[in-house]
Amino acid sequence: MLKLVSHLNSTFSRNLHISTPLSGSVFMKRQKKVDPEVAKVREARKRKKLEREIRDMQKHSKKPKPVEELTIDVRRAKNLPERIREMPVISEEKAEERALILKEYTKFAHQQRLADEKWLKESIKRQDAALKELKRVSPDLYNSAIQFDQNLLPFHFKGPSLTPPIKGYVSPDGEYVDTTKSWT
Amino acid sequence: MSLLKSLTSNTVQKRLFASLRDKAPKITPQELYEPVFEDSKVYPEYSTINVRLQSYNFVPLEKYEGYVHRIAKKFKFEIVDCYAVAAQTQNIQTYKPNSTVVDSEIELSKYDRTVRISQVPSIRLPLFISLIQTHAPIGIEITVKEHEKVDEDNRYIPDLMLKEKQLELKALDDPAIRRNLGWE
């Protein structure tokens, strides 16, 4: 028994060849010796090819994300004639009433516009005058006054809501699922 | 001779007619060979600012974007670009009370418009913002911030193939891969 084991041991150690790169995995290729000049040329060619491809791609690369509201929905454009509605007929009194309201509104809007422009002109004039005076009084303060305001940007503001908060409103349970198309 | 006369008498010579030398244009050394272009900017200016308008309601948003554009023109800012970005869509599911049974599914999209302005003097920006705030329509969100590269890149679809090629080109400089090329 011992003789058999010792015989097996000897045969094993003699017949086992290990060439160093192949000692690890089955997937390593035998590394061929490459002529350095050939390798240099190959690398230069590869680099040039990549650079040219990058340049060509960059010419056609900037595709803007499509804005749905500005594109024409082809399917719905085809059956557009089916969905054209006729304008409703408005009685004369109503039309007159509407015209009078429109006139009032345009008058109001015009006055608002004039007030805004007056405010703007005044503000700019006063700013300039104040800064001119400040420059005369103290140049240091003037220099710090015309610097950028660090607390101003980024500026976030929400416009008014349609109604004030409704008393006793019970908001329903639900879920918000973000379905924005991501292009990555 | 005039000096002696002024010393001896109390009269001062009054020359009402300009001499030929006075009539000649006074040229400073700088403007001898090139005309002088004066920079009429008194206050430091922000380089580029994005005014981003977002709303669920499309019509007031478009009108307001036009309004912001007009106001920027009034302030004599330079308007670089005035564009739309793809809307963010949400799928909202409301549940029936005290259960998870879906009551209604609503698809909302938040539309996005941006006005990009440049050459904004530091002191005029707060005036601009306050005027815009006053006329903000219902349900709008205004964000005023300085322009960054990310803002411009978000408008376009990222080109994955271009990125791959650029990574490959960069990888050629990686020492681990350069060793495998065979000539270093």
UniProtKB/TrEMBL annotation, chain A:
<keyword id="KW-0689">Ribosomal protein</keyword>
<dbReference type="InterPro" id="IPR039145">
    <property type="entry name" value="Ribosomal_mL40_metazoa/plant"/>
</dbReference>
<dbReference type="Pfam" id="PF09812">
    <property type="entry name" value="MRP-L28"/>
</dbReference>
<keyword id="KW-0496">Mitochondrion</keyword>
<comment type="similarity">
    <text>Belongs to the mitochondrion-specific ribosomal protein mL40 family.</text>
</comment>
<keyword id="KW-0687">Ribonucleoprotein</keyword>
<dbReference type="GO" id="GO:0005762">
    <property type="term" value="C:mitochondrial large ribosomal subunit"/>
</dbReference>
<keyword id="KW-0809">Transit peptide</keyword>
<protein>
    <recommendedName>
        <fullName>Large ribosomal subunit protein mL40</fullName>
    </recommendedName>
</protein>
<dbReference type="InterPro" id="IPR019192">
    <property type="entry name" value="Ribosomal_mL40"/>
</dbReference>
From TrEMBL, chain B:
<dbReference type="InterPro" id="IPR036838">
    <property type="entry name" value="Ribosomal_uS10_dom_sf"/>
</dbReference>
<dbReference type="GO" id="GO:1990904">
    <property type="term" value="C:ribonucleoprotein complex"/>
</dbReference>
<keyword id="KW-0689">Ribosomal protein</keyword>
<dbReference type="InterPro" id="IPR027487">
    <property type="entry name" value="Ribosomal_mL48"/>
</dbReference>
<dbReference type="GO" id="GO:0005761">
    <property type="term" value="C:mitochondrial ribosome"/>
</dbReference>
<feature type="domain" description="Small ribosomal subunit protein uS10">
    <location>
        <begin position="50"/>
        <end position="145"/>
    </location>
</feature>
<keyword id="KW-0687">Ribonucleoprotein</keyword>
<dbReference type="Pfam" id="PF00338">
    <property type="entry name" value="Ribosomal_S10"/>
</dbReference>
<protein>
    <submittedName>
        <fullName>Ribosomal protein S10 domain-containing protein</fullName>
    </submittedName>
</protein>
<dbReference type="InterPro" id="IPR027486">
    <property type="entry name" value="Ribosomal_uS10_dom"/>
</dbReference>
